[in-house]
Automatic annotation (TrEMBL):
<keyword id="KW-0456">Lyase</keyword>
<feature type="modified residue" description="N6-(pyridoxal phosphate)lysine">
    <location>
        <position position="48"/>
    </location>
</feature>
<keyword id="KW-0663">Pyridoxal phosphate</keyword>
<keyword id="KW-0028">Amino-acid biosynthesis</keyword>
<dbReference type="GO" id="GO:0009089">
    <property type="term" value="P:lysine biosynthetic process via diaminopimelate"/>
</dbReference>
<keyword id="KW-0457">Lysine biosynthesis</keyword>
<protein>
    <recommendedName>
        <fullName>Diaminopimelate decarboxylase</fullName>
        <ecNumber>4.1.1.20</ecNumber>
    </recommendedName>
</protein>
<comment type="similarity">
    <text>Belongs to the Orn/Lys/Arg decarboxylase class-II family.</text>
</comment>
<dbReference type="InterPro" id="IPR002986">
    <property type="entry name" value="DAP_deCOOHase_LysA"/>
</dbReference>
<dbReference type="InterPro" id="IPR029066">
    <property type="entry name" value="PLP-binding_barrel"/>
</dbReference>
<feature type="domain" description="Orn/DAP/Arg decarboxylase 2 C-terminal">
    <location>
        <begin position="18"/>
        <end position="386"/>
    </location>
</feature>
<dbReference type="InterPro" id="IPR022643">
    <property type="entry name" value="De-COase2_C"/>
</dbReference>
<dbReference type="InterPro" id="IPR000183">
    <property type="entry name" value="Orn/DAP/Arg_de-COase"/>
</dbReference>
<dbReference type="InterPro" id="IPR009006">
    <property type="entry name" value="Ala_racemase/Decarboxylase_C"/>
</dbReference>
<dbReference type="Pfam" id="PF02784">
    <property type="entry name" value="Orn_Arg_deC_N"/>
</dbReference>
<dbReference type="GO" id="GO:0008836">
    <property type="term" value="F:diaminopimelate decarboxylase activity"/>
</dbReference>
<keyword id="KW-0210">Decarboxylase</keyword>
Amino acid sequence: MFNTNILTRFNNLETPFYYYDLDLLAQTLQACAYASAQYNFHVHYAMKANFNPKVIDKIQSYGFGADCVSGGEVKAAIEHGFDKGKVVFAGVGKSDKEINEALDREIFCFNVESVQELQIINDLAKAKNKTASVAIRINPNVDAHTHHFITTGLEENKFGVNTWELPAVAEALGQLPNLQFLGIHFHIGSQITDLSVYKNLCVRVNELQQWFEERNLPIKVLNLGGGLGVDYYEPDENPICDFASYFKVFNDFLNVKPGQEVHFELGRALVAQSASLVSRVLYVKNGIKKNFLILDAGMTELIRPMLYQAYHVIENLSGKERVKNQESGIKNDESGKEVLSPESGILSLIKYDVVGPICESTDCFRKDVELPESYRGDIIVVRTAGAYGEVMASGYNLRDRVQSVYSE
Ligand SMILES: *Cc1c(COP(=O)(O)O)cnc(C)c1O
């Protein structure tokens, strides 16, 4: 993905920054829009994955809806041109202020996570003489087979309504006149790469929608959430998710009745591969047991490795360039003329702990990363950083806010 021209560009820029490949983003959006259109599926972009203005403007331009988890995201989505009729609002802890603002903005649907929340939304809607459209977020107790820190659909997780609470939900829906019941919602976790998980989810959803229909609560919207994973290990081989296979699972296994709409909320799968975090080596510390590469970026720019042990490919672009030059190396012949010597050796790989500058011991991108011998000033890229990267940047240690650079 990265060539010599890009390295020259990066060398001339102040680091650290997020580099956005807007062409790859466009291709990814195109692929998702095409694959979902095969089945008339509706896709909402999960705003929390990345709300860089250029990124969300691009996503909006493809006609996706927005999946929001805070009042700020609802506001940003509408300000960036997302159709209010395609905005959904989830979250276990919606405040009264957030609910009121979303009511004023007349969003498509509240994905409600408890009986108590149903009552509050009803009361707030009543005070405004409005009706709120709601879907029930159900915790289906389906194992997402992903990292335990990013699984959300098990009974031990805080999200959604557990199935034993559904009778209380049905009763509440019958008694709350300022709510309009739209359907059921699920989101069982993130970075899901095993598609059989989604098949299991479909089976549960089919049972649950039956349960609602039997209680005279017809379902118009089936919202299956997001969570489709990306390839963090081989970003160049698999830059775009297999959206066709993903949507096909739902087409094959979900029981969709006439007139029902099927909705999704994808975040990571749409944006992860289109950004890298670009930084420079500040210092190389060689110890007896350890070699440290100390970067000018750390957990304040990209916290995923420190927060949930996430893996990212880490490359030394400057080192790669040196290896390339050496492999096709220029050597002098007997007369002193420069000649190419293709057989000249490959520079040795060294293991480094790649760490940031923050005053926390956990501020480490990864231990024992094999890289070409590295020097102060080398450009290091952390790949697949477009999802849950820039959005989680913080000002800890009173550091400058991370910058963004775009391919166009
Ligand atoms: C975070 C989130 C998503 C998106 O998850 P990804 O793994 O990024 O696809 C979708 N729906 C809800 C309710 C979420 O909280």
